[in-house]
Amino acid sequence: MALIQIRGLRKRFGNGDVIQGVDLSIEEGEIFGLIGPDGAGKSTLIRMLAGILEPTEGGISLRGIDVVHAYEEVRGVVGYMPQTFGLYGLLTVEENLRAVARIHGVEKTEFTKRTERLYRFSGLGPFRDRRAAQLSGGMKQKLGLSCVLVHQPQILLLDEPTVGVDPVSRREFWEILHALSAQGSTILISTPYLEEAERCHRIAFLHEGQILEVLDPRELTTRFPYATCDIYAPAMRGLLARLQQRLAPPVAFLSGDRIHLICEKKTVDSGRLERVVNKLSPQGAEIRHTAPTVQDLYFILEKRGHGS
C-alpha cells in the first residue's frame, strides 16, 4: 500500500523551478532515500511533504490525506525532522520530549509509556537528566528523532539527519531506522552520503530538482552498464591524468589510496587494461575489479543529466 503519493510536483522560486515535475510512490514500511548533492532540491521536496512549503503545481497525498488542503489532519500522521532540529539546549532530554509531547496532546500516562520505550530504543535512558546542549552530535540527533517519534507518527520525513554525525552514531541511527521500518513506519530520508543509499529499500537520485532514476540498491550490480575497478599505484595523480588521456573512461577519480575507474563497457578486457596501466605506471600497479556502487551510478546519471 502506497502511503506517500506525489504527482506532478513542482516548486518555483522567482523565475526558476527548484522542483521540476516529480512523481513518486512510497510504500508502507519502506525506507526510501532521496540522494543528491547540495542544491538538488531534497530539502524543498521534504518541506512540501511536511506541509511547510506549498507546491506551485501538483499534489501530495500522505496516507490518503491531501497535504495542501488538510494540513492539520496530516500533522497527526507525520513526523518531520529538519536538518537542524529545534532542541531546547537548556532543557534536559526528558524535558525536551515532554515539551514536544504537550504540543501533540500526548497524555501524561501515555507519555511515560512512550518515553520509556524511546529511551530503550535510542539508548538515551542514562542521559534523560542531561541538558540537550551537553549532548554529543550523535546523541542530539537521537533526541531529535525521539522527539519526532513521541506522538507515534506513521510517516517519518527526515532531512539529512546524519550530516555532521560521527560514523558510529550514523550506524546506530540507521539501526534505529531499520527497527522502525520493521515495526511498520514509512520513512523518507534525504542524505548527501551515497554510501547510506545502500541502507534504503529504494532510492531516488535527485539532480537539479528532477528524479534521474528510482531503483532498489540491490539491483545495482545487474543494472549498472559498466565494469568498475580500483587501481593502486605510486604517483597516482600523474597516473590518473595519463589514464584519462589514454582510456577516456566515462568516470575516473582519486578515492583515498586508489584510483576508481568506471570502464567503457559492461565487461572489460583485463589483459589490455593491465598492459595499459603498467605501461603508464612503470613503478608497477595493482588492479582490483569491484562491484559497482550507488556512487558509481550517480556519477553516470549526473553526466547524462548534463548531456555528457
Would you mind describing this structure in some detail?
The chain is α/β, with parallel strands linked by helices and 308 residues long. The protein folds into two domains: 2-217, P-loop containing nucleotide triphosphate hydrolases (Rossmann fold), CATH 3.40.50.300; 225-291, Alpha-Beta Plaits, CATH 3.30.70.100. The protein has eleven helices and 14 strands. It has helices at residues 42-49, 71-75, 93-103, 108-122, 137-149, 167-182, 194-197, 220-223, 236-247, 270-280, 294-305; strands spanning 2-13, 16-27, 31-35, 57-62, 65-66, 78-81, 155-159, 186-191, 202-207, 210-215, 228-232, 251-255, 258-262, 286-290. The strands form three sheets. It has a six-stranded mixed sheet with strand order 6-7-8-3-9-10, with helices on both faces. β1 (2-13) and β2 form a beta hairpin. α3 packs parallel to α5. The longest helix is centred in the middle third of the chain and has 16 residues, at 167-182. The mean pLDDT is 88.
